[in-house]
Amino acid sequence: MDVNKNSYIFGFSALLVIVVAAVLSFAAESLKPMQTENVRIEKMQNILTSVGISATPAEAGELFDQYIIDQKLLSNKGAVVDKDGLTAFDIDAVKQYKDKNLSPEEKFYPLFTFQNEEGKKYIVPMAGKGLWGPIWGYVAFAEDMNTIVGSTFDHKSETPGLGAEIKEDFFTQKFIGKTIFEGNEFVSVEIVKGGQPWDSPHKVDGISGGTITSVGVGEMMERTLGVYVPYFKNTSKASL
Amino acid sequence: MSETAEAKVKEPLFSKKNKKLLTDPLNDDNPITIQVLGICSALAITVQVKQAFVMSVSVLAVMIFSNLIVSLIRNLIPSRVRIIVQLVIVAALVILVDQILKAFVYDVSKQLSVFVGLIITNCIIMGRLEAFALANKPFPSILDAIGNAAGYAWILIVVAIFREFFGSGKLWGFQIIPQSFYEFGYFNNGLMILPPMALITVGIIIWVQRSRNTKLIESN
Prior knowledge:
The structure holds two protein chains of two kinds. Chain A is an alpha+beta fold. Chain A contains five helices and ten strands; from the N terminus they run ααββαββββαββββα. The mean pLDDT of chain A is about 85. In chain B, strands 1-2 form a two-stranded antiparallel ribbon. Chain B has helices spanning about 1-10, 15-25, 40-45, 50-70, 80-105, 105-110, 115-120, 125-130, 140-170, 180-185, 190-195, 195-210; strands at about 170, 175. Mean pLDDT of chain B is about 85; it is low at about 1-5. By secondary structure, chain B is mainly alpha-helical. In chain B, α4 (about 50-70) packs across α5, α4 packs antiparallel against α9 and α9 (about 140-170) crosses α12 (about 195-210). Chain B has one domain. The chains are: A alpha+beta, B mainly alpha. The interface between A and B is medium-sized, with 28 and 30 residues.
């Protein structure tokens, strides 16, 4: 058989592409349930990590159901909205952040309520932009809806050793105890370079060499938390 | 013709020639330091040892299967379109590896993120397909793949050890340089984390290797 005939080349290429396409789509389809489950579990783990509970993939689902007692959706004005068939867990903050076609009114902001024997905590998911790609995270607030009690951040493709350090404990722990209100005014938490007073309740030391990612974290927090301000103000006053 | 064929059948599984396929790429014919292939990934993912290790394992898997498949169908591949055929096979395997990692070892797949996709463009894989698998039987092709992947892996890991140790004071994510050093004014070398230092480290390895291995010293 002459393998260099044009007809053979066409036939061979077509066959190869069809076989490869079949194998890949079969693999993608059959592995998809496991992959989406992994993503779901990871999200539960992240939410729990922000309040200081580290869960293995096997127990994440159970602990999540046990501790997260309420899920709310807020509109972009900070009012609680009811959307049929949509829970706070279903909102993919990163996807929503990147989707240019959504008008601000169509975006929903989830809020998770965590409760254990020590009391309630409120968890806010957020998404933003790092140096190379999206970053996201969960920030947990104490019952006063002002003091940060925990946080977790993650990223898609920040530089290892530099921007990627935002997911490390040493960075996320710096947020604990910081507050987002100065008196009655929303000031968020700013990520600053070295040499500035970090003991300020609204400032956190950024990562050397990871400036753009650090600034991205600050921007993400300010923009996202700004949406929750009306809700936080009303709710914390009502409960006081 | 029949004589040579018979001789090949009788060739033991790990003959001298086959063993050479495994050991040559480790030193005399190393894909990174001698052939200077796959430099791109050697620069990109040697900041931490763990990443370098997982990358090496992924490259090993892709290389074994691509070499095997290409070697099996080597007589069917039209030579005029062979490069694109190799590319399709490698790309399909890489996507498969990526999907499997995502389904079964999700945390590792997150570690590697974009780098898995970059295996497709790793010159070593295409190079071995072109230079070896297209002309050899499946078993030697597998050995060749293992040898070259190992040659790639050890350079990657050595570079990563240097970079993680001097750049972050850690190895495999564990702190090695004690805190008291930092209190005495020791600083991590931030330059080690940036790509240029990877190139310099690879350069130093090439230098050491060439000065020790007499076969590699050029006469003129």
